[in-house]
Amino acid sequence: MARAQAILQSQFPYHITGRCINREWFHLHLELVWSIFSEELYVTSKIYNLQIHSFVLMSNHFHLIASTPDANISQCLHRLIGVVSRRLNECGNRINGTFAGRHFKTILQHPNYFLNTYKYVYRNPIAAGLCQRAEEYPYSTLYGLLGQAYLIIPVLEDTTLFSDVEGTLQWLNTTPNSEHWESVRYALKRSYFQPRKNREDGKVTLTLNDLI
């Protein structure tokens, strides 16, 4: 079956995620993987005007929120994922690809959808049991934005964080309603952010006004 064509647009941010083949871990120390991703995100942003909002690297996948003013998400990701995969293979002396098939892209067509995804991305390490607070995880742009490490990934001005750092961190570290959390996970598997409907009453489990 042919893959669906990517939706090219410049109005809204995307959430992008890619996972290693067979859900395996990266076969390298995560610090090296982070360094390679950081360098290639920097280069991709300069070549293709990829505007990065946040990035989190996990043990076998990544989460990226980014905008494309030139409506060229396919070019951006073709370069980013292709070069990262090649460099990881060279460093690990491997010949097989790193990532499993296609990456997934979701358009965040409303500010609240962006905010829910922002929290989902930065809480991923907490959900995986890797840290207790979002700002403690070192392979995250949040860690660098807060001055805890040198950050070469060119993140756009984070008005969500810097309008109220203490309040934003408190929000990120507050455990969300499990039903809403699952609704965000479901929504991020669609081309456009689309919260799941409750099977019993047909209502969406996460409305435009809800934040996880």
Automatic annotation (TrEMBL):
InterPro entries, per database record: Transposase_17, Transposase_17_sf
Domain named Transposase IS200-like: residues: 9-124
Superkingdom of the source species: Bacteria
GO BP term, pick one: DNA transposition
Xref: Pfam families: Y1_Tnp
GO molecular function: DNA binding; transposase activity
This protein's name: Transposase IS200-like domain-containing protein
Organism: Pseudobdellovibrio exovorus JSS
